[in-house]
Amino acid sequence: MIYYSLDKDAYQPRFAYEGDAGMDLALSHDLTVPVGGHRIGDTGVHVAIPEGHVGMLFVRSSTGIKKHLVLSNGTGIVDQGFRGQIKISLHNTGDKTQHIAAGDYIAQLVVVPIATNHIAEVSELPDSERGTNGIGSSN
Q1: Is the pTM value of this prediction over 0.85?
Q2: pLDDT score for 139
């Protein structure tokens, strides 16, 4: 169960179809993103990500394809303890200024389980088959 609350001007998050992985989020205000520019949009949505999970924010495919808008930071992460408003930082990669109306569903939040990790510094890492082979090493 994903619990949420809304600011005064926010639109209800939604799952467009039964079984969808992503919960659609709309902007709570009009937003204009100039060519090559970045703008931050407010959703007015606050969520309580369940313990042992993370929220991953993506643009909806129609936002990327039709409006040439991408997240400024690639993928947004909503940690389980964050209770602030979800904001969407958009970058316009197209050749036209993009106008988004309040209420337009432009992003989606996908909640997935994560492994709880602990970190420890060591003087040497264990060997692996891949080793230090990096970019391009697998053709």
Answers
A1: yes
A2: 74
Query: What span, in angstroms and rounded, lies between the C-alpha atoms of 47 and 24?
Result: 13
48 Cβ contact partners less than 8 Å away, ≥ 6 residues apart: 2, 3, 4, 80, 83
Strand ordering across the sheet containing 76-78: 22-26, 105-113, 53-59, 76-78
Looking at the DSSP bridge assignments, the partners of residue 70 are 91
Look at domain 3-113 and name its CATH class.
mainly beta
Residue type, 76: G
Task: Provide the pLDDT for residue 133.
Answer: 85
pLDDT number for residue 49: 96
Measured CA to CA in angstroms, residue 34 lies from 27, 38, 62, 65, 97 at distances of 17, 7, 18, 16, 4
- Which H or E run contains 20? none
Q: Give the model confidence (pLDDT) of 11-42 as tens digits.
A: 999 999 999 999 999 999 999 999 999 999 99
